[in-house]
Automatic annotation (TrEMBL):
Pathway: Glycan biosynthesis; trehalose biosynthesis. Removes the phosphate from trehalose 6-phosphate to produce free trehalose. Pfam families: Trehalose_PPase (PF02358). GO terms for biological process: trehalose biosynthetic process. The lineage of its organism: Eukaryota, Viridiplantae, Streptophyta, Embryophyta, Tracheophyta. Transmembrane segments: none annotated. One of its GO terms (molecular function) is trehalose-phosphatase activity. NCBIfam families: HAD-SF-IIB, T6PP. It is an enzyme of class 3 (hydrolase). This is Trehalose 6-phosphate phosphatase.
């Protein structure tokens, strides 16, 4: 099927909406208004917004500049991005709004007492440190073992922007559920609920171990289009030193982390030049990556709802979904939990960022600590 048509402009997804209210259980936290906003931006000469295209590219560039905190020095155990010293004070102040999930651990577990926790984990920047080469974003064995242990006690799923088989290869744990391509490729349990089974694009399949699973791919008709766009982007970015294009099956990513900042406008122009021929694709921003994906009403938030339903945990008041992620695309999941007034998001960030999450963790090492704490708590509560 030809999905191309020329009667509409590409849909551009702008920076995440700012949510100012905390809902549900967490009413005791101080309100917080950052003076003049918290995103770190680098002054830049913008193109004159003479044409609509220029305005779009200019807004992309703003988002590109805000897409990742500045790098200072790697810590001993994790090659993480660390904020500069002068942001420490604003980080502490930001934590009044997004308290650490470690220091708030008792609050979290008191709430989850006698309820069932379901755990959703993003991969890059959450389980693995952000590194220059996306092909080498390995998680540590210590993290793998923390994830393996937590999955013994709570249903656990990885929800990543990467292609599902790639993130499975990186994590390597058969006891988890995996969703790739920002939730557009879900391999989940065979349904407990009839409504989940009724979903179009959901087929019965078997995983690598021969276990029966449900495969849900709501964007399957876009496969040839994404492939075509991927190949065009590879071709068109060839001349941009440091640019890297990845094919994630139902979406494709253009990395500019290793591109000299003065060439970022060329990256934006190049992606825009391709995307404007595909009105059924849209652009979202990740950490120094432009992500091209189908215009369908599906994202990581929808994937969380789908998986909860598949696990038979959809409508229960006694289920506490916890989603841990670092990226803008994780905001869709945070929002679903916040707006549904169930469970909560935990934002992984070493710099202040506005978010729909309730809590924060600084980096993957704190994520690991949080996972271990959940296991300790569960073991103790069973005694
Ligand atoms: O949803 P996620 O699992 O967080 O995946 C989001 C993107 O992650 C990867 O890119 C990011 O991590 C790379 C490795 O640390 C880093 O080099 C890059 O700058 C980050 O954007 C992945 O390569 C992307 O395709 C994913 O969309």
């Amino acid at each position: 099927m030809d999905l191309k048509s020329n009667h509409a402009a590409p849909v551009l997804t702008d920076p995440i909406p700012i949510s100012k209210s905390r809902l549900g259980i967490h009413t005791n936290l101080l309100p917080y208004s950052p003076p003049g906003g918290l995103f770190l931006t680098i002054p830049r000469k913008k193109p004159m917004p003479g044409k609509l295209d220029d305005v779009r590219i200019s807004s992309w560039l703003d988002a590109m500049e805000a897409s990742s905190p500045p790098r200072k020095k790697p810590t001993k155990d994790f090659n993480i991005e660390v904020a500069s010293d002068d942001t420490d004070a604003s980080y502490r102040s930001w934590m009044l709004k997004y308290p650490s999930a470690l220091t708030s651990f008792d609050e979290i577990t008191n709430y989850a007492m006698d309820k069932r926790i379901a755990l959703f984990l993003d991969y890059d920047g959450t389980l693995s440190p952000i590194v220059d080469d996306p092909d080498r974003a390995f998680m540590s064995n210590a993290m793998r073992s923390a994830v393996r242990n937590v999955a013994k006690y709570f249903p656990t799923a990885i929800i990543s922007g990467r292609r599902r088989d790639m993130v499975y290869e990186f994590v390597g744990l058969t006891e988890l559920y995996y969703a790739g391509s920002h939730g557009m490729d879900i391999m989940g349990p065979v349904r407990h609920s009839v409504s989940a089974d009724d979903h179009p694009n959901c087929i019965r399949s078997t995983d690598k171990q021969g276990k029966e699973v449900n495969l849900f791919q709501p964007a399957s008709e876009f496969l040839p289009m994404i492939d075509e766009v991927f190949r065009t982007l590879v071709e068109n970015t060839k001349g941009i030193k440091g640019a890297k294009v990845e094919n994630h099956k139902f979406c494709t990513s253009v990395h500019y982390r290793n591109v000299d900042e003065k060439n970022w406008p060329i990256v934006a122009q190049c992606v825009h030049g391709v995307l404007k021929n595909y009105p059924r694709l849209r652009l979202t921003h990740g950490r120094k990556v432009l992500e091209v994906r189908p215009v369908i009403d599906w994202d990581k938030g929808k994937a969380v709802e789908f998986l909860l339903e598949s696990l038979g945990l959809g409508d229960s008041a006694d289920v506490v979904p916890i989603y841990v992620g670092d990226d803008r695309t994780d905001e869709d999941a945070f929002k679903v939990l916040r707006e549904g007034n169930r469970g909560f998001g935990i934002l992984v960030s070493s710099v202040p960022k506005d978010s729909s999450a309730f809590y924060s963790l600084r980096d993957p090492s704190e994520v690991m600590e949080f996972l271990k704490s959940l296991v300790r708590w569960k073991k103790l509560s069973k005694l």
